[in-house]
Amino acid sequence: MFAMLRYGLMPVVFFCGVVVVSCVHIVWTNTVHRSTWPQTVVTVLKSQDIGDVLAQFQHRENTFPDPRGTGTYVVGGKTYAWQGRGRDIGVTAMKPGDQIKVYYNPQNPQEIGTLELLGMVTGSIIFAVALTFLAFYGWFFWLRGFLRRSGSDDFYGDAPDSFPDRPLEQSRATSTSNDRPVARSVAPGGAVTFGRR
Predict the structure, then answer these.
(1) How many angstroms from the chain centroid is the CA of residue 3?
(2) What is the pLDDT of residue 146?
(3) Which of 28, 41, 97, 155 has a CA 20 to 30 Å removed from the CA of 171?
């Protein structure tokens, strides 16, 4: 059963490993871009969110804003046009006339973004759960058994040094050598009783 669980959980371990590596890669890449990419400002020309239209029609609040629009920005004296989803550059709200500060790739100025990690809270929870599972799996199914075999930790109090080197009979004799002798007496009525003097 133990071996079946150890190897049966491998797909989950692989998935959690991919999640952890992906999260680390995203955060590291974002940090590098923030420190190496220059900044510019995008001026929004048009913006529309179909979710807002549907929410107004249904008399409810738009819980997932996803605006789409167009804008312009200048890099090195040259004007570039941007068009697409706001979430693609890291914004969830924009309207015509807004000026959005973005980073751009010096090798490809058309690659822009605010470098805001949308969904950071949810991603952090998933990362923490995956990392906790990997740590528990590694300790419970691999590290714990290795430590027990190597004798570096006495998990159950049965390490070789836990027992004395003297024989069992000798320890019994030693433990009872100082005890008082056991007496046998006959109680009134013929019953035999045992006790200490």
Answers:
(1) 24
(2) 75
(3) 155
Find the helix packing angle between 10-36 and 120-138, rounded to 10°.
Answer: 130
If 0-12 CB within 10 Å is exposed, 13-18 middle and 19+ buried, where does residue 69 land?
A: buried
Contact 67/49 with Cβ under 8 angstroms? yes
Backbone φ, ψ for residue 123 (5° rounding)? -60, -40
The whole-angstrom separation of Cα 106 and Cα 39 is 10
Give the global pTM. Answer: 0.65
Q: Given the DSSP bridges, would you call strands 39-48 and 68-75 parallel, antiparallel or unpaired? A: antiparallel
